[in-house]
Amino acid sequence: MERQPQTVRVDQDGRRDHRLSRPTSSTNQRRMTLALRVLGIGPGDEVVVPANTFVATVEAIVLVGARPRFADVDPDTLLMTADTMKAAATPATRAAIVVHLYGQMADVDDLARGATELRIALLEDAAQAHGARWHSARAGSLGRVGCFSFYPGKNLGAFGDAGAVVTSDSALAERLRSLRDHGTASGGRYQHEVLGTNSRLDSLQAVVLTVKLRRLDGWNARRRRLVDHYRRLLDPELVQLVDQRPESQPVHHLAVARVRNRDQVREILVNKGIGTRIHYPTPCHQLPPYTRFSHVPLPVTESAAREILSLPLHPHMAERDVERVSATLTAAVLEARSS
Ligand SMILES: *Cc1c(COP(=O)(O)O)cnc(C)c1O
Asked: What is the pTM of this model?
């Protein structure tokens, strides 16, 4: 049976709503902090996290007082693997956060086995992977806890900031609902038994998300068709699109490619009216607030950071846009090579 990644319902009076089938909260990073807290992770604990991620994943670990242990990534998918997770773990490690970056699924089977061996909890950062599947299971349903962001630019975006935590563990869900609403005890308004916070989902955002959720699978299918088109048009000798695992159905939050002379290629593209981005230019272990947690070089992450390039991708793009980008990109790579 398929487990759904999230159910977002309108919280009519802006307060906790017992009909909410899953806990919801504002912003991805804040709900990741709550997820770590309900798992009892805090000062003295370590959490393994890939350095190739958006900074918010790492921020949450530091905000609960724990220490991030940075893991390297697989050279083809640029995602954390069981091996890179194990290499980063120490006896103080209590959890690992797998990030399904770019909308690609990491090998959750292997990671779950590795986490069991290490006796640590596996959390999922699915902020870029709404609706992605590993075999038939949806992103966010495979770890103890899964976290989503509904930042407007995500595959499922609100009209402002929003996020959700999902879990199949009803005891954890109950504690999450309490924490996101000022630590209110179940059944008792103004009974605050634990230190909580206000991380409720705004009702207006919930309305927007409820309507857009119905369209999500269609938009994701469109993203897959466009990336398949890129894959057909781009010569892997010149432009390598980040790999996807055969067990997975990715949702391509981003179409990330690796190219040599990346900065020069980008400049040529800009001059031809094609905007690209880099996700992310500095790996997290090299960002100033986190260098103190960086102990070993992460060669795959560091070399990828010099080559990654996010190509234009949006469900409303046309096939001919992909064709124009592919042709211009191919010419730019050749031009950068010969100069
Ligand atoms: C967007 C994003 C987040 C942060 O979400 P917010 O809602 O901005 O807190 C966390 N992790 C990843 C991988 C993201 O892409």
From this structure: 0.92
CB-based contact 54:290 (threshold 8 Å): no
H helices of 100-202, where? Answer: 108-118, 170-179
Tens of pLDDT, residues 81-114: 999 999 999 999 999 999 999 999 999 999 999 9
Cα(224)–Cα(249) distance, rounded to whole angstroms?
Answer: 9
pLDDT band for position 270 (cuts 50, 70, 90) = very high
- Please give the span between the terminal C-alpha atoms of the chain, in angstroms, as a whole number: 55
Residues pairing with 335 in the sheet: none
State the Cα–Cα distance between residues 314 and 327, nearest whole angstrom: 18
Give the Cα-Cα-Cα angle 250, 154, 312 (nearest 5 degrees).
75
Q: How far is the CA of 155 from the centre of ligand 1 (A)?
A: 12
Cα–Cα distance measured from residue 280 to residue 93, given in angstroms and rounded to the nearest whole number: 26
Establish whether residue 151 lines the binding site of ligand 1, counting it when its CB lies within 6 angstroms of any ligand atom.
yes
